[in-house]
Amino acid sequence: MASETWLIAGLGNPGTRYRHTRHNIGHMVLDELLERINARYTRTKVGAKAVAAQLGPAGPKLVFAISEGYMNRSGKPIRALMDYFSVPTERLVVVHDEVDLDFGRIKLKRGGSEGGHNGLKSITQHLGGEREYLRVRVGVGRPNGPMNTADYVLQNFSAAEQKELPAIISRSADAVELILTEGLTAAQNKIH
């Protein structure tokens, strides 16, 4: 497993305006992972910030990345990094917000539909329709009342949610590490 390279992509939008929004939970989880290994992003020529690292001395080779563009254009830089580092679709892990899960709930899966998520749609499009990448779905819940879902995910977390957020981010980072070290099924058994 140590010779295989994995790409871990955290979805979100660029800039301070979106930094603490529900849609940026993928960025937040990757920030936590980078803090754990004491690594920092550098800019790439493909429109993403990335860092190559290793999970422990015998662990797999990793590339952590976030797009510098907006969510709906995540696919192009992720695909470019996959090509550059020779990462096959089955070793792509995408961390993203999920409105179809209650706030704080984490689900892991391989493949499936994009469920209306524009970041996932962009990735699938740039992978030529291939959907068999791994997903760490971090629940942000749905809006109460008639609010548009797109507006909801671009809002900051509520004060009550912000109190729970560090634990959720930490558990989501744990989920990524489990996928990388123990595989999807073992990670699902521990996280679900």
Outline the fold blueprint.
Blueprint: E1 5-10, H1 25-36, E2 42-43, E3 48-54, E4 61-67, H2 75-84, E5 92-98, E6 106-110, H3 118-126, E7 134-139, H4 149-153, H5 159-182, H6 184-191
Parallel strand pairs: 1-4, 1-5, 5-7
Antiparallel strand pairs: 2-3, 3-4, 6-7
Helix pairs in contact: 1-5, 2-3, 5-6
Specify the CATH architecture: 3-Layer(aba) Sandwich
Q: Which geometry do the CA atoms define?
A: globular
Following the backbone from N to C, one meets helices and strands in this order, namely EHEEEHEEHEHHH
Euclidean distance between termini CA atoms: 24 Å
CATH top level assignment:
Alpha Beta
What is the third-level CATH name, the topology? Rossmann fold
Query: What is the CATH superfamily classification?
Result: Peptidyl-tRNA hydrolase
The overall strand count is: 7
Spans of at least 5 consecutive residues whose pLDDT stays below 50 are none
Number of helices: 6
Structural class: alpha/beta
